[in-house]
Design brief:
alpha/beta, 5-stranded parallel beta sheet, 2 domains, 5-stranded mixed beta sheet, 4pyrrole_Mease_sub1, Methyltransferase, Cobalt-precorrin-4 Transmethylase, Domain 2, Cobalt-precorrin-4 Transmethylase, domain 1, methyltransferase, single chain
């Protein structure tokens, strides 16, 4: 038996009572660790769940096998499905199951192998669509903004937008407790940004630049739909794209595509650590958002549709006055 279970976005204490009941009966628990992050370390999660198991059994030595599941184990190996043929296995994912396609693949393999499965959902970043005064049914396709890793592109963005005195370059910029993740100079000269990024004479080669994310945002925009933008994470490198970098790449994409959709007066929403105890949301112009520090990941953006309703605009502006 395979249980695919969402653990929410804050920490392990967001798991539901139903999930706790299931975990008490499981032989193996896998915790997926590559599509998101949570605020508690793995050993704390393991300790918490095993304490619950022990407190609910007369045998104090009862302990469930708990294992981190990296991308290779989930996508390339058959361990989880094979064990689930003869044992009760829980596969825990941050947020809710199937928001990431890798989890869909696991379910399909279980079905192919004749393994019974059940799914327990939880809150995910998609729940942000109904918040902040924006109607959930006015959202279009969700997009992911991937990190531009071309050295020339990174150098261009770093030299023209980022603080030139930064010790960590964009490729190596990571977030941890000892590093300030704000990679942008708080004293940005906006005229310099405009002259260097938003002009028609870019001195870099953008022929192979991934821009489909921006095309999808534009398609939503012209159809009066909002866009939820998820930012790139690379857990193996401890890299989590911040909102500043994402906005910088949007500016670059606009200059290449020339859609006339985003400029320095365009107002966006930056959502930080949604559904956690430290959630913060900012609604401001691109010019001002580039100057802000947003703290720990994860960050997301919401770009409003062209025909945002009067009620939505009024609501969101009153919230963030």
């Amino acid at each position: 038996m395979l249980y695919i279970i969402g653990t929410g976005l804050n920490d392990y204490k967001d798991i539901s009572l139903r999930t706790l009941e299931v975990l008490l009966t499981c032989d193996e628990i896998y915790y997926e660790c590559y599509t998101c992050i949570q605020n508690k370390e793995f050993n704390e999660i393991e300790k918490y769940i095993n304490n619950i198991l022990n407190n609910n059994t007369s045998n104090n030595t009862n302990k469930c096998n708990f294992k981190l599941a990296n991308r290779q184990l989930v996508e390339d190996e058959c361990e989880i499905v094979q064990i689930a043929k003869n044992k009760r296995v829980a596969f825990l994912v941050a947020g809710t199951p199937f928001f990431a396609t890798t989890h869909v693949d696991l379910l399909l393999r279980a079905k192919e192998e004749g393994v019974e499965y059940k799914v327990i959902h939880n809150v995910s970043i998609s729940n942000v669509m109904g918040c902040y005064g924006l109607y959930s049914y006015n959202f279009g396709r969700t997009v992911s903004i991937c990190l531009y890793e071309n050295e020339n592109i990174n150098e261009y963005i770093e030299n023209n937008i980022c603080n030139s005195n930064l010790n960590n370059n964009i490729n190596n910029n990571i977030y941890n407790n000892n590093i300030n993740n704000n990679i942008y100079n708080s004293n940005l000269n906006n005229s310099n940004i405009t002259n260097n990024i938003c002009n028609s004479n870019l001195n870099i080669n953008t022929d192979n630049l991934p821009l489909s994310f921006y095309d999808n945002i534009y398609n939503n925009y012209i159809n009066n739909l909002h866009t939820l933008c998820l930012l790139d994470i690379k857990t193996d490198r401890e890299y989590f794209m911040d909102a500043n970098r994402a906005i910088a790449q949007i500016l670059l994409a606009e200059e290449v595509r020339q859609y006339g959709m985003v400029d320095y007066d365009t107002k966006l929403l930056v959502v930080c650590r949604f559904a956690t105890d430290t959630e913060r949301t900012y609604y401001d112009s691109v010019r001002n958002l580039l100057r802000k520090e947003y703290g720990k990941p994860l960050h997301s953006l919401i770009i409003l549709g062209k025909g945002t309703s009067v009620i939505e605009k009024e609501f969101i502006e009153k919230i963030f006055e």
